């Protein structure tokens, strides 16, 4: 191997070590080495404990699915704090992760729908609006989220907001959606 290439490899691995093996409290080398040198080769240490956000996200969602009320909302909040957008979206080979990316996105959307349902049952109307808005930030074409948000707004007397959302939905849908325009729906005022 060319000396310059080998030198660049060592520099790159040193930079990687600084990220995955932060120094201990005294500023020395971390106790747990993640990258091991084995003669002329490098390998990852198989016994080092690790945590993947995606695995923790799935675990918390499953836990929340088995809970009710405030406990479920709290666990969904912990899970959704770990979801920071599409899985590996900035990776140049990200097509290899398409199935996992879609699965995690749908898990986040499903969690937000259930959270909105629990929030509405608890009278947390602003949180309901935030949950539906977050779904639409993840997937602007999610028609069920558009419809649920419009229906919620109309139900709580926010017809003008519902009409604006309906018009956005109509543009995304490419024509008049199956949901009637908010002006045609009944409403009642949103309690404080």
From TrEMBL:
Pfam families, A to Z: BTAD
SUPFAM superfamilies: TPR-like
Domain Bacterial transcriptional activator, residue spans: 52-184
Superkingdom of the source species: Bacteria
Gene3D superfamilies, alphabetized: Tetratricopeptide repeat domain (1.25.40.10)
InterPro entries hit by this protein: AfsR-DnrI-RedD_regulator (IPR051677), BTAD (IPR005158), TPR-like_helical_dom_sf (IPR011990)
PANTHER family membership: TRANSCRIPTIONAL REGULATOR REDD-RELATED (PTHR35807)
Name recorded for this polypeptide: Bacterial transcriptional activator domain-containing protein
Originating species: Deinococcus ficus
């Amino acid at each position: 191997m060319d000396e310059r290439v080998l030198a660049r490899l060592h520099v790159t691995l040193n930079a990687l070590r600084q990220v995955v093996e932060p120094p201990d409290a005294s500023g020395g080398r971390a106790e747990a080495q993640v990258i091991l040198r084995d003669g002329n080769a490098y390998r990852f240490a198989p016994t080092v404990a690790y945590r993947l956000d995606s695995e923790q996200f799935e675990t918390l969602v499953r836990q929340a699915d088995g809970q009710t009320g405030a406990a479920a909302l709290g666990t969904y909040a912990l899970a959704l704090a770990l979801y920071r957008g599409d899985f590996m979206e900035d990776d140049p080979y990200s097509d290899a992760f398409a199935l996992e990316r879609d699965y995690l996105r749908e898990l986040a959307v499903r969690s937000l729908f259930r959270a909105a349902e629990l929030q509405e049952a608890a009278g947390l109307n602003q949180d309901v609006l935030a949950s539906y808005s977050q779904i639409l930030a993840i997937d602007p074409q999610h028609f069920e989220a558009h419809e649920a948000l419009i229906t919620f707004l109309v139900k709580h007397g926010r017809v003008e907001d519902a009409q604006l959302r309906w018009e956005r939905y109509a543009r995304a849908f490419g024509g008049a959606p199956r949901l009637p325009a908010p002006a045609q729906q009944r409403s009642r005022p949103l309690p404080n």
